[in-house]
């Protein structure tokens, strides 16, 4: 795919590196802000290496920076993490407290997913408490979180799962009726299955689901904390991500009123016995014409996502309603899959990135002006030749004031976090 160069301008923006102590820093995904509400503290993970293959014994420090140029403060450690999503570290500020939550590995089995749990840490008291189960996404009001089985993710989509035993992927049932999208009460720790994999399979059933393993990822909760989106995925060949099939689904926070917004079921010649999954490039999956990825709420009832609709793949904006309207965002300009989010203070501005150019290994960081229909390039970043499991996507994230952006990058041959001032673009 190509971009319309006439619709893309470049505006210089200042950039500052957070880590300055010879260690490597990263945050992970694009779907939550690294900053606290006041913009004075920035969450991060710290490790002594840039691209290690992950095993259950490897630990990362969990903590925060005071500000750009400030010291890093460690609040704990975890061995339940990956390079793409970190340990799901995120702020819990919906109830007026300075708390964070992150995933950990249990030393003794607990909860529904025995070897994995989560920790809530209070920055004011310094005290922590442990929950029996891990979390994926936290509701903005901080009352509950949604979670899934990270062991299942390690089998189906290794880059976002956790290993239980070094070198082994323990078997799981393909489509169980007692597991699926789960809700965790952050006060009591109680867990309930909102929608099972068996229920998902039988919801607008497709023949391609019959012999497939099923899973859920990209779970997001709307600003009102009453509606949840996720991607339901299934495949008969987990080794080849271009064989993944996708659906965008929403439910109420109690599991009711399930809606199918998009389905990209399609023929899969890759399932032929003589197909070589090793022939698939690192980013072929992200560039698939059938890929549904990176959904995020724009408002309580609007969802931005990269994916196909009516035979065309674009950034699409969905209205979360039966037969809801679907519109294209950035037609002819935003022509590549990326990690996108709207400014928290002005939805005129859509932040996104690109995957590496096949020839130059350059990733672009963009802000799309939805009012003037133009993209502004605010940075180019070289990425070294890392494997899929330990690659470093930019995963751009806004601060709460909509004036700064935080990215992860390896362009300096270090895995580091950088803060970019975008006021020259938005003012």
TrEMBL record:
Domain of life of the organism encoding this protein: Bacteria
InterPro entries on file: WD40/YVTN_repeat-like_dom_sf
Protein name in UniProt: Oligogalacturonate lyase domain-containing protein
């Amino acid at each position: 795919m190509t971009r319309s160069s006439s619709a893309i301008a470049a505006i210089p923006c200042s950039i500052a590196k957070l880590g300055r102590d010879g260690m490597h820093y990263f945050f992970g995904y694009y779907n939550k802000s690294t900053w606290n509400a006041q913009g004075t503290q920035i969450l991060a993970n710290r490790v002594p290496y840039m691209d290690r293959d992950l095993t259950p014994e490897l630990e990362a420090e969990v903590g925060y920076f005071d500000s750009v140029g400030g010291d890093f403060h460690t609040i704990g450690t975890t061995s339940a993490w990956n390079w793409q999503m970190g340990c799901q570290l995120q702020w819990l500020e919906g109830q007026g407290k300075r708390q964070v939550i992150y995933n950990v590995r249990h030393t003794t089995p607990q909860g529904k997913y025995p070897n994995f749990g989560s920790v809530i840490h209070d920055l004011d008291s310094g005290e922590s408490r442990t929950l029996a189960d891990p979390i994926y996404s936290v509701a903005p009001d901080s009352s509950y979180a949604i979670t899934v089985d990270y062991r299942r993710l390690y089998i189906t989509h290794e880059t976002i799962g956790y290993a239980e035993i070094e070198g082994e992927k323990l078997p799981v049932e393909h489509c169980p009726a007692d597991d699926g999208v789960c809700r965790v009460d952050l006060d009591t720790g109680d867990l309930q299955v909102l929608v099972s994999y068996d229920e998902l399979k039988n919801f607008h059933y497709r023949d391609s689901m019959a012999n497939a393993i099923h899973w859920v990822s990209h779970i997001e909760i709307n600003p009102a904390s009453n509606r949840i989106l996720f991607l339901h995925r299934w495949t008969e060949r987990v080794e080849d991500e271009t064989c993944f099939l996708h659906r965008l689904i929403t439910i109420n926070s109690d599991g009711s009123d399930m809606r199918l917004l998009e389905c990209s079921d399609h023929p899969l010649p890759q399932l032929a016995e003589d197909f070589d999954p090793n022939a698939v490039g690192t980013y072929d999956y992200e560039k698939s014409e059938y890929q549904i990825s990176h959904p995020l709420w724009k408002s309580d009832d609007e969802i931005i996502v990269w994916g196909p609709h009516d035979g065309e793949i674009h950034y699409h904006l969905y209205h979360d309603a039966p037969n809801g309207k679907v519109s294209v965002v950035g037609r002819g300009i935003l022509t590549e899959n990326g990690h996108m989010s709207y400014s928290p203070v002005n939805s005129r501005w859509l932040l996104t990135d690109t995957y590496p150019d096949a020839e130059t290994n350059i990733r672009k960081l963009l802000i799309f002006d939805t009012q003037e229909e133009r993209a502004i390039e605010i940075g180019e970043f070289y990425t070294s030749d890392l494997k899929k499991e330990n690659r470093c996507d930019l995963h751009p994230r806004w601060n709460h004031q909509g004036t700064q952006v935080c990215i992860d990058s390896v362009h300096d041959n270090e895995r580091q976090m950088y803060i970019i001032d975008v006021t020259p673009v938005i003012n």
